[in-house]
Design a protein that fits this description.
heterodimer; A: alpha/beta; Ubiquitin-like (UB roll); Alpha-Beta Plaits; Rossmann fold; 4 domains; seven-stranded mixed beta sheet; five-stranded mixed beta sheet; 26 strands; B: alpha/beta; de novo design (two linked rop proteins); 3 domains; 16 helices; 9 strands; globular
Chain lengths: 626, 415
């Protein structure tokens, strides 16, 4: 006889034996052996409520059918999901759900990816016996400027209200009225303010909650789906770019438990219109004060010429939304080819003195006892999905201490000396204070103190790691006294050329007042970007580049996780940004011969070994400072 | 054998609702005696008495108290005064006539289970009864029965009176607790049962008004005395709410086990207008209809009598509409199924029903019964299904005659 492990339970589902940990729901035990039990209200991220009654199954020794989504397995349990009683009931409950459902699938955004539609086909009756008027409700009710609610399609599964309560903790959605007249709504019909509303549309098992942006844009089967990373912030939430006819229809979440826990914020999700390409654009150069359309070759030759004259007096600004591969070449172009140290990716003066080598992983927030959110709401605003992780952890007992950026003292007093695992979250603006607080807390408490710095942009962390900084090289190496000027100092540094590269309007080069005065005085301003901007008026060269959503490469999120982004849209007439860098470098005599993005990725991993984490799906960790 | 009433014995006394009058009839002596006992002794006493809950389910009260986990405090007592079952009006009567008896019962139960804060969840429509309880609570507090260190016995107890907002479902104990906490009244997933995780997540006992009203008498007269009244499985007396087609509708406190015929004929004065009894319904809307020759024991507290002129289809229709109106909307089968049944019954009434509709009703009932979260869904099907079972021909007549064959005679009866 095999030893019986007490934390494991063996049961049979439809005669098949399955062993699962104690505390597993029947639904999940069945799923483990490939047995599908239809559900609507059940959601893996939310506590069972068993309201839709779709998942009822037979459990031996229990007189009534049991909800598989809410009943935990027991040793020796005998579950049957396909008996006559169950299948007859499944038809019955689907018939019930449809009596007041408008069945307007042909004009519903959800049609084609709708659990109600799918399960009706799989488990439902072919026809309804209901012959009365359906209960009528308001349709296309604006819940906010982002979301519309069709109350007729709603099957009252409570997923959205539970999200609002259990996942975001905002309690903005509630059930109103009762019985068949029950509706979902906000308090006093005030517009919902949540920054997580897009998730409602994804968890809605019918077409009741739809996003304004995606409404009537596409049928799901017409979408080209490309896995990528959200360009919104440094969180690195995994997304799917859903495009139709080479136009983005929506960003959908793509679960990565380590990063986004399957959610997106509205800022990121609804940012995609920024990445819609407006026109076919060609490179331009300024001749006699006017911009003229030219070929890439001409524009590159013009740029090479100007940069040659500027040499070490040329500065380069690369966006924190650029890929690591672009950043590798951009750095080499300036440091190795032009011999200029003046490189930056920042828009404000932020300290980057040391690597975030001991940074806390996002998912590890759930394993902390105490966390100091230094800067409070600023931190959440900088990476909104962090709030969901914090709230999830808080519900499990994490003590969340939100203090102002200057209130490190309060945080220090608020953490008890016997604390075992403490975390600090802060934005880059408060990095110095966070590092200092970490030191002081480490002296105070028994256990460990780790920090997680919210970097800027989807690849601000990569830009720092790869040395797009005036004072540090790749891997935070010293420049041996060759440090250049930081962007904040450029306007008064007597520079002779500026090369701006950006790939996201969300993280572009926005000139300060001083820079607005300085830019027109530059002998050469090269603007290599995705979308027209006011800066075009001052540029000598405009090089169209790819948007974040139009290219392949890798980006590094705030915790150091290197993730691939992929080309979700084609813009073939635009020369890939890295090729332009290579052409310019070669025009300046470099002799590079990269043939693909993969070539550059390989070199990145070779030259910067911590980036081999990319191939293992892990985080880049720098050695601890002495 | 007629047993003397217990709970209603002094109800003829004028101003019984005043504390001084209640005390003159022996009021609060049960509570005083209880305070001399150990809480555990009280629990044993009530177990021994065989008292069962009077809210409908009939669970042994002492056992319910015994389920509270040891050492977990605070724990709460909630007195269920959300009497909303159509045909039930006994709690209303008990509260109105003798609010102090209710309060005394609550105090005894609270002391027995170690609760220092009890709640009364009263049906929102019961305004005069709410006022009666409010006054009683004030009087009791002034007299030292409520508050800190009551009667100098070192026991603290207070009572909070909470009015419901008009939802039948809030009579279901977990929905009541949810409503009491300030949320939308909807039943909770069981387990955990309220005894383990009830109000505000704490161990909670929910007892009906009539149940607690028995406690002073059990404490004063002993378990054996109480157990001697009634039947082996139903101890003590019950209040029957007699309504419908009887000559003397009203509340009757009778020994458990009183035959229905005696109830209707002797106490209710028989079916009105010298008509014949067609059917009756014990236990409010949530029960099956019974025929005159059926079961001789009345189960729960209501007795709705229907004479021979009653259209059973219409009776079922009204009950179904009640459940459709009161379904909280949480579970699909109850929410949608009651709505559909109500539509079908309207169709019968309008004379537009088709032959298949009777079986359709039964099938809808099959898909609701046992499939919902709480018993409301189940109960919504029992009355109509039992009516179809016993009076199927009336449904068929509604179809063949394209309308209600009773309509005419019912109108005459009303006139």
């Amino acid at each position: 006889m095999a030893t019986v492990q007490t934390d494991q339970v063996t049961l049979t589902v439809n005669g098949q034996s399955v062993t699962v940990p104690k505390g597993t729901l029947i639904l999940d035990a069945a799923k483990k052996i490939g047995i599908d039990i239809p559900i609507f209200c059940s959601h893996p991220k939310m506590a069972p409520v068993a309201v839709c009654r779709m998942c009822l199954v037979e459990v031996e020794k229990m007189p009534k059918l049991q909800p598989a989504c809410a009943v935990y397995v027991a040793e020796g349990m005998v579950v049957r999901t396909t008996t006559d009683q169950v299948t007859k009931y499944q038809k019955g409950v689907l018939e019930f759900l449809l009596i007041n459902h408008p069945l307007d699938c042909p004009i519903c955004d959800k049609g084609g990816e709708c659990p109600l539609q799918d399960q009706t086909y799989q488990y439902g009756p072919g026809a309804s016996r209901y012959q009365f008027d359906k209960a009528h409700f308001d349709k296309a009710v604006p819940l906010s400027d982002k979301i519309l609610l069709d109350r007729e399609r709603c099957i009252l599964c409570w997923r959205c209200t539970r999200f609002s309560e259990e996942i975001s903790g905002e309690r903005e959605l509630a059930l109103i009225q009762r019985g068949v007249h029950t509706i979902i709504g906000t308090f006093n019909d005030e517009p919902a303010q949540s920054n997580y509303q897009g998730n409602w549309t994804e968890i809605c098992p019918v077409g009741a909650l739809t996003s304004r942006q995606y409404r009537f844009i596409s049928r799901p089967w017409d979408l080209d789906r490309t896995p990528s990373v959200c360009p919104g912030c440094s969180m690195g939430c995994n997304i799917q770019i859903d495009a139709r006819n080479n136009k983005i229809g929506r960003f959908q979440s793509r679960e990565n438990l380590a990063v986004d826990d399957s959610w997106l914020c509205d800022f990121g999700r609804f940012s995609f219109p920024n990445f819609q390409r407006q026109s076919l654009e060609r490179p331009r150069v300024r001749r006699d004060g006017r911009l003229e359309e030219v070929s890439y070759e001409e524009a590159i030759a013009f740029t090479v010429d100007g940069l040659k004259r500027a040499g070490g007096q040329a500065a380069g600004w690369a966006s924190p939304a650029d890929t690591n591969e672009e950043l590798v070449l951009f750095r080499r172009l300036f440091r190795e080819v032009l011999r200029s140290p003046h490189l930056d990716h920042r828009s404000a003066a932020i300290p980057d003195a040391e690597p975030d080598d001991i940074s806390l992983a996002i998912a590890d927030i759930e394993r902390l006892e105490h966390v100091v959110v230094l800067g409070g709401q600023e931190v959440i605003d900088a990476a909104p999905v962090l709030h969901l992780r914090l709230f999830k952890a808080q519900r499990k007992g994490l003590n969340v201490l939100k203090v102002g950026g200057g209130d490190a003292k309060k945080a220090l007093d608020g953490i008890p000396a016997d604390a075992q695992v403490v975390g600090i979250l802060a934005t880059e603006a408060n990095k110095t204070a966070a590092v200092e607080l970490q030191g002081r807390l480490q002296r105070k408490v028994k256990g460990s103190v780790r920090r997680l710095i919210v970097t800027t942009g989807p690849n601000g962390r990569g830009a720092k790691d790869l040395g797009i900084l005036p004072h540090l090289g790749p891997g935070y190496t010293s420049l041996n006294g060759q440090a250049g000027k930081a962007r904040m100092e450029w306007s008064g540094a007597g520079l002779r050329a500026l090369y701006v590269h950006e790939s996201s309007p969300l993280h572009g080069f926005t000139p300060s007042d001083a820079e607005s005065m300085w830019l027109p005085t530059l002998p050469l301003l090269v603007f290599h970007r995705f979308k027209p901007s006011p800066l075009d008026e001052m540029a000598h060269v405009i090089l169209p580049g790819h948007a974040f959503t139009e290219k392949d490469g890798t980006v590094t999120n705030m915790e150091g996780r290197v993730q691939r982004i992929s080309r979700g849209l084609d813009a073939d007439w635009v020369v890939e940004d890295w090729r332009v860098f290579q052409e310019i470098a070669n025009g300046l005599g470099a002799g590079w011969a990269y043939e693909s993005v993969a070539d550059i990725t390989a070199e990145l991993v070779r030259s910067l070994p911590p980036y081999s984490a990319l191939n293992r799906g892990e985080r880049v960790l720098w050695s601890e400072p002495a | 054998m007629a047993v003397k009433p217990l709970l209603t014995k002094d109800f003829a006394t004028e101003d019984l609702h005043r504390l001084s009058v209640y005390e003159r009839t022996g009021g609060y002596t049960g509570f005083k005696k209880a305070l001399e006992m150990q809480p555990d002794e009280l629990v044993e006493l009530v177990k021994k008495s065989g008292l069962r809950g009077r809210g409908g389910a009939g669970f042994p009260t002492g056992n319910k108290w015994g389920f509270l986990p040891k050492g977990t405090y605070p724990r709460y007592l909630v007195c269920n005064a959300d009497e909303s079952e159509p045909g039930c009006f006994k709690d209303r009567y008990l509260i109105e006539k003798s609010p102090h008896q209710v309060l005394e019962g609550i105090l005894i139960a609270s002391y027995a289970i170690g609760c220092n804060l009890a709640f009364i969840y009263i049906r929102g429509e019961y305004l005069p009864q709410t006022e009666a309880l409010e006054t009683a609570i004030d009087e009791a507090r002034q007299a030292g029965y409520l508050g800190k260190n009551v009667l100098s016995k070192g026991y603290d107890i207070d009572v909070i009176l909470h009015r419901g907002a008009g939802a039948y479902i809030c009579g279901e104990e977990t929905a009541m607790l949810t409503s009491l906490e300030g949320y939308r009244g909807e039943p909770r997933l069981k387990p955990p049962f309220p005894a383990i995780k009830g109000l505000y997540g704490k161990p909670t006992v929910v007892n009906n008004v009539e149940t607690v009203c028995n406690l002073p008498h059990i404490v004063l007269n002993g378990a054996d005395w109480f157990a001697a009244i009634g039947t082996p499985t139903g101890k003590g007396t019950r209040l029957w709410c007699m309504s419908g087609h009887v000559n003397r509708p009203g509340n009757y406190e009778l020994e458990n086990g009183t035959p229905i015929r005696e109830l209707i004929e002797e106490h209710g004065g028989g079916v009105w207008k010298n008509r014949k009894l067609k059917a009756f319904q014990p236990g409010g809307a949530s029960m099956m209809v019974l025929l005159p020759e059926a079961g001789s024991l009345a189960g729960a507290g209501a007795m709705v009598v229907m004479d021979e002129t009653t259209c059973m289809v219409d009776a079922a229709r009204r009950y179904v509409k009640f459940f459709e109106h009161e379904s909280c909307g949480k579970c699909t089968p109850c929410r949608e199924g009651t709505f559909w049944m109500a539509n079908l019954f309207d169709q019968f009434e309008a004379g537009e029903a088709k032959p298949g509709d009777i079986d359709l009703l039964l099938d809808i009932g099959y898909n609701i019964d046992g499939r919902s979260f709480c018993p409301l869904g189940d109960a919504s099907t029992w009355f109509p299904r039992s009516v179809i079972k016993f009076f199927r021909e009336e449904f068929q007549e509604h179809i063949s005659e394209k309308g209600c064959p009773f309509k005419k005679s019912v109108q005459e009866a009303v006139a």
